[in-house]
Amino acid sequence: MPLNATLGTQRIAAPPVRDPAWRGRVLLAGGALALLWPLLVATEFKPWVLWDARSLKVTANFLASFVPPRVSPDFLWLVLQQTWRTVAIATAGIALALLLAVPATLLSTRALSVSALAGRMAAGPFVLRQGLRGALIVLRSVPELVWALVFVRVVGLGPTAGVLAIALTYGGMLGKVYGEILESGEGHAARNLLRNGCSRLQAFCYGLLPQNANELTSYTVYRWECAIRSSVVLGFVGAGGLGQELDSSMKMLAGAEVATILLVFVALVALADRASGWLRRQLG
Questions:
Q1: Residue 269, exposed/middle/buried by CB under 10 A (0-12, 13-18, 19+)?
Q2: pTM of the shown model
Q3: Is the pLDDT of residue 279 over 80?
Q4: What secondary structure letter does DSSP report for 241?
Q5: Which of 3, 16, 211, 269 is the residue whose CA sits 20 to 30 A from 93?
């Protein structure tokens, strides 16, 4: 039989008119909406208030005061000083966070436990490990804004409160993620080093660090970028930096000053993002 005749006798299935998975997607969307609706009700989420005539008038007046931004030399010099202070708060806070996170990670990571080489971890190291993990949970559970409010009352207004707040919260975050990164990697080399008499630090430096260095550094740089944004928020409670200057300008209804500070902050975050991206490329 000719090939054309054979093809003519075969029926080509027509493409489906409807998505075969539409029922599942509709059910999934309905279930998500059913779960989300009580949360929206609990938070009194009413986005239509933004389009109220009075809200639009207030917003328009506030935005109109932004133009033109204030660019007087004395104010720009003040903003530049506060920008440098913001970067200093974030960097010092991350440095102190590392002093908390690195030792806690070395002591709480199962991959570096000598007593766990035989299988089950001994009671003493297990209790120490759980205690350190609990301390890291406490540190990261309290937002840096709350820590800043506490330290403002203890050490007074200024950057010290912001540095300590970032150090405690980010120390808990870094310690948790560092531990997860090290335990999710291949720990065979570290265990062999421990079995041959190497110290915990040597097993970390020669067994775990080489294969996880890029991921650890990338996350640290990302947290430094987040700390810059957090330091601005901490300024609203008196922790210094751009945030404190922004809070003062907003209280004085100085829209031109607010616009300048916001533009500088956007530029600062963009530069931090470029710097972190460059570091990631160098490590990659």
A1: middle
A2: 0.77
A3: no
A4: S
A5: 211
Q: How far apart are CA 103 and CA 211, in angstroms?
A: 19
Structure tokens of 58? Answer: 């207030």
Residue type, 177: V
The dihedral formed by the CA atoms of 111, 117, 119 and 122, expressed in degrees to the nearest 10: -90
| Residue 204 DSSP code | I
Do residues 101 and 174 touch, judged by C-beta distance below 8 A?
yes
Token output for 39 = 């949360």
At 173 the pLDDT is: 92
- 166-205 confidence digits (pLDDT tens): 999 999 999 989 888 888 877 677 777 777 777 777 788 8
Q: CA 267, CA 82: separation in Å to the nearest integer?
A: 14
DSSP state of 118: G
pLDDT tens digits, residue range 208-238?
788 888 888 888 888 888 898 888 888 888 7
DSSP of 14-55, one letter per residue? PPPSS-TTHHHHHHHHHHHHHHHHHHHHHTT--GGGGGSHHH
Taking a C-beta distance cutoff of 8 angstroms, is the pair 280, 273 a contact?
A: no
DSSP line for 150-198? HHHHHH-SSHHHHHHHHHHHHHHHHHHHHHHHHHHS--HHHHHHHHTT-
The fold of 73-283 is MetI-like fold (1.10.3720)
CB atoms within 10 A of CB 171: 24
- Output the six-digit token pair for 130: 């759980």
Residues of the chain with CATH 1.10.3720.10: 73-283
Tell me the one-letter amino acid at 281.
R
